[in-house]
Amino acid sequence: MEHHVNLVHNIPFFSIFFAMFCGIITPLLKSGRAARHLHGFMVGLVGMLSVVLLVSVVKNQEAYTFMMGHFPAPWGNELRIGPLEALLAVMVSVVMFLTITAGNRQIFEEIVPEKQKFYFIMLNATYGAMLAMTYTNDMFTGYVFIEILTIASCTLILARGTKQAIVGTTHYLVFGCMGSGLFLLGVCILYGITGHLLFPQMKETIAMLMETGQYHFPLMIVVSLMFVGLGIKSGLFPFHSALPTAYGSTMTTSNGILSGLVLKAYIILAIKLVFEVFTIETLVKLRIADVLGMIMGSFYAMREGRLKRMLAYSSVAQIGYIFMGIGLGSEAGMLAACFHVLAHAVTKSMLFLCCGTFIEEAGGKEQLENLKGAAYRNPLAGIAFIVGAMSMIGVPLFAGFISKLYFAEAALEMTGTRLVLVLAALAISMILNAMYFLPSVIAIWSRPETKEKTVRAQNSPLFAMAMVLFIVVNLALGIGYRPIIEIMKMGIELIQAAL
């Protein structure tokens, strides 16, 4: 692993610092519009720098660590950057930029002017925290930004200030604190066992303990606490009940960020822990169970008649896919999980933004029967919703199909009952996805019962641009997925080479 630091190597630290710095100076700005311009500039700049970083590490096939401060191991704080981390940072930047661009008008219509600056403060904090959790190479940094992300997420839910938003925020906060508490307890026990907080030193100590058979039961408890904690925070079944309540009471712009990105940040940290602390082999030895909450999430989505809550339950199902891939205990399963993080982030943010336009045109009504003909009033949003639905179902040419294809390939590496159960779960879940997404598509594209002439909505140029780019990115992942897969494989190989 290369330790020489050059200008490009400073990009991850600068990205995190710049995002948090913009959050600090935002209160000094005159208006919410100025805060929006600063946020857009920051995300755009960091996104372009992340692309430069991705090109650099892929071209050089390198992974490196960046020491923050002047305290070396085992006391310091570090960032670790490789092709996988750089790719995920690009994904976070792209989805964040497109989501805020598409939801720009809604932010200024639904949040009172005096609170608009504070909304962008929390957006900057959210963005910085997600980047930090993507790059972190130590437990302390990871936990600190888990808490920052939790607080910022609650503020995004509360932005409307309605009674429903207060209830949703409280519900979300309770579950978030529960997840953070379990994770912190696991970190404390692990620190007591290993004496380290940096991932590499923890990894070496755990590997040695596994070889000698020491602390087997405490390590199993640690892994359970940390992964259950992250599972709670990412909305994994059966710890999902906060999501429908929270998502149903907040703006769809916040929904897109929370479902598309925030939930993935906790999963990205979990994937980093698998690769860089416990290793896949250790998880297999500790018998970490597979997670198939995707089926139950789909069942709940089928029963839900409100579009926004249906999408929230759909997120529960899709999170189940990712944790199932982690639970397979193989590199192929982890590869599928990583790709599904990208596919779901791009797709679900787009779906929530489309949902927001449909609900707005229906006078705030969320029931599917009230959304009939919504796609005729807004064809662009209707087309984008079809693309998102097909991706979530797993139709070829769309992003979601590729991840599910790789989940199936990972399952084929297994044998016996486990192989049958995983393939059956994948098949059942895809059928269930179709059973609740297709009725939604049919509803919004049904001819309105009224004989009045359909008046098409006038989309803002920003919304139209963002929707077109969301569709393009989704199709690009579904058709031109091979370079993305190769980058992920390179990232995983570099991590494995460092073990």
Helix content: over 70%
Q: Characterize the biggest β-sheet.
A: 2 strands, antiparallel
The fraction of residues assigned to DSSP E strands is under 5%
Principal-axes geometry comes out as globular
Report mean pLDDT, rounded to a whole number.
84
How many β strands by DSSP?
Answer: 2
With helices defined by DSSP (H or I, 4 residues minimum), what is the helix count? 20
Order of strands, main sheet, comes to 1-2
- Write down the secondary-structure element order: HHEEHHHHHHHHHHHHHHHHHH
In angstroms, what separates the terminal alpha carbons? 10 Å
Q: Kindly provide the radius of gyration, computed on alpha-carbon positions and rounded to a whole number of angstroms.
A: 22 Å
**Structural class label:** mainly alpha
Low-pLDDT residue spans: none
Describe this structure in words.
It is built from 20 helices and 2 strands. It is an all-alpha fold and 499 residues long. It has a two-stranded antiparallel ribbon with strand order 1-2. A hairpin with an 8-residue loop joins strand 1 and strand 2 (77-81). Helix 5 packs parallel to helix 11 and helix 16 (379-393) packs parallel to helix 19 (461-479). The mean pLDDT is 84.
